[in-house]
Design brief:
mainly alpha, 66% helix, 379 residues, 2% strand, two-stranded antiparallel ribbon
Length: 379
């Protein structure tokens, strides 16, 4: 996982789906990216990101030279090893060789030299931070956190270590600690959009939608066109059962051409909840073409058919889901409700729900019980 080369690989943004606050992944919800223009550091602060870019530019130029050039990959490594052989206690040469291996993608080898440099100079801010970076990219998170703590101790006013620590804590689902890291980052740079956005995601995961809303609204006020922010504001509205307000945010996103399946699924849910089943059906038909075996799509489509008064289609949809997943309580309840509406005997409706509940208990994890949350993203 090249975690910090893309800022936060593997991190999903959290979008409440129709039947709960657990979340759907979406194209909009890419890994956190450094989308903002670089901001000048405050006087006395180290700008690690610019420092790293400068280091990388120097080494990329050296490593891209021709095979016969003075600074080919091989000659750079040979020269650095010669310097280390002559003076094994040269931390600069050890760090430089670490940079070469990092840029070549040999993360374990890079960290070996960063750690050797740290043995000679344990209080070197840059050595600690580079070591943390390559360990994080190599999924060695505990070691990365140890070096980050050292870097923070050495330079508590530097933004980058707090941001990196927060991202790792998010991946480890240590959400309260992640929140603390991003709050410290915001003390250093109050308008940092990446920190504000990440903190809003954590607040959603911690079931604090009010705090998440405040952060997202601040971002929206500063940059109204941000699709990520509008997406998550709409998700909060849908989770609060305010589909009309969700559509205020989401319809412009749709009109701007976003067609990720998970976004479309949530948009169709908002249309259904907002009493616009025809629009929901149109989107779901498109989704069925993209994902023909998505049970969540079939379930929402059955709900929409019921809302449209197409009871036979709704019944067929629910029964098809139950044939494939007998413990799906949402489908059982939908079918039971449909049968009541069509005048079926109440005992048949009760039997359907009871059988589905018993099946779900026998196959734990197959489908959530009523009242629990579920990820109603397309399967």
């Amino acid at each position: 996982m090249k975690l910090f080369l893309i800022a936060l690989a593997g991190l999903f943004l959290f979008v409440p789906s129709l039947r709960g606050e657990e979340t759907a992944r979406a194209e909009l919800a890419e890994p956190l990216r450094a989308r903002d223009a670089a901001q000048d550091p405050e006087p006395g602060r180290i700008d690690f990101e610019n420092y790293q870019r400068n280091i990388d530019d120097i080494f990329h130029l050296a490593l891209m030279a021709g095979a016969d050039g003075d600074y080919s990959v091989n000659s750079v490594i040979v020269e650095l090893n010669r310097k280390i052989a002559g003076n094994p206690r040269d931390p600069d040469a050890l760090m430089s060789l670490g940079h070469v291996y990092r840029i070549l993608g040999q993360l374990t080898e890079a960290n070996r030299f960063y750690q050797k440099a740290l043995e000679l100079d344990p209080d070197n801010f840059h050595s600690n931070l580079f070591s943390a970076l390559v360990q994080a990219e190599d999924d060695a998170f505990e070691g990365a956190l140890r070096n980050l703590e050292a870097a923070i101790r050495l330079q508590p006013a530097e933004l980058y270590p707090w941001m990196t620590q927060g991202k790792i804590m998010m991946l480890l689902k240590r959400d309260e600690e992640a929140a603390q890291s991003f709050r410290r980052a915001l003390e250093i740079q109050p308008e940092n959009r990446q920190a504000l956005f990440a903190l809003s995601l954590i607040e959603q995961r911690l079931k604090r939608p009010g705090e998440a809303r405040k952060l997202l609204e601040k971002l929206h006020a500063a940059q109204p066109g941000d699709l990520f922010v509008r997406y998550h504001l709409g998700a909060l509205e849908l989770a609060d059962r305010r589909p009309a307000q969700a559509l205020v945010y989401w319809e412009p996103v749709f009109n701007e051409g976003v067609r990720d399946p998970n976004f479309l699924f949530n948009l169709s849910a908002a249309y259904k909840e907002g009493g616009q089943p025809a629009k929901a059906e149109a989107i779901l038909n498109h989704l069925k073409f993209m994902m023909p075996r998505g049970l969540d799509i079939e379930l929402l489509m059955a709900d929409v058919y019921g809302q449209l008064g197409r009871l036979k289609d709704a019944e067929s949809g629910y029964r098809a889901i139950l044939a494939e997943e007998p413990g799906n309580l949402a489908a059982a309840v939908g079918l039971a409700d449909l049968l009541r509406r069509s005048g079926a005997r109440p005992e048949e409706s009760e039997r359907l729900v009871r059988q589905a509940a018993e099946t779900a208990r026998r196959h734990q994890g197959l489908s959530p019980s009523l009242g629990e949350t579920s990820d109603r993203s397309p399967s």
